[in-house]
Amino acid sequence: MNEDIMLTAPSSGGLASRVQCLMRGFGLIPHDLIASVARLSIAAVFWQSGQTKVDGWHVTDNAVYLFQTEYKLPFIDPWVAAHLAAFAEHFFPLLLVIGFGSRLSALALLGMTLVIEIFVYPDAWPTHGTWAVCFLTIIAGGPGRLSLDHLISRYFGRES
Question: Which residues are the signal sequence here (predicted)?
Fold first, then answer.
């Protein structure tokens, strides 16, 4: 173990040294745990949103109506936008859960989040910022060892 990150507090330590020891301990939280929580939690958010847009295998009329009246995305037909959103909100979360193509899936959903923030709900930036942190954690650090990406990279001799 690295001596800089030891969890034992100095014997002469008071409250300050104990807090410092605790802060160093936070650095021991494994990225695999953080990435797994990020992948699963953000996948659930988008999956649940996707479920509101479909009835079985069909995009609902209500979803198309929302894209016509409330979302009003520029440059794209509401029918096409509803179908693309329903697909993306099911496909990319599924990939995140199994950890396959995780960085690209996170990037795709981050792009979708930016579109939502800029064109649909600009006042929801605290929520979208929280989502972005999950995506950026996956993009920057990878999906962790509990993923198909990791197994594939080990098979081919590369780290994820």
Answer: none
